[in-house]
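Lecture 7 notes: from sequence to structure.
We start with the chain below.
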Amino acid sequence: MSSARQFTRDTLHAWGVVARRDDMLLCVSELATNALLHGVPPGRGYLLRLLTFDATVRIEVHDSGPGAPRVGGRPGGESTTGRGLMLVAALADEWGVLARHPGKVVWCEFR
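Predicted structure tokens for the same chain:
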């Protein structure tokens, strides 16, 4: 299991969050993978933040890469990429992108 998923699993357990845990873990995997593939220039890393407020869990992945991610068209049946943000959009109650300098924050929330 990736360190991002393990950190998330441990944090959700400490917070007593059980509902939708698998959806949150999948979204963490997708957002962290996107950050590594598209948002982290050589020699840089990404930051995973988990927050809880008002019965909501917010997942944030901060990276220093350019551009803004978007949900693309349907990937081909044989393609192994291009589905990450489609999954996040389908599973999370809300998601979005915030600018930061340098880079961006891709976030999603679960109520």
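Points to note: The first helix runs from residue 3 to 15. The chain has a mean pLDDT of 88.
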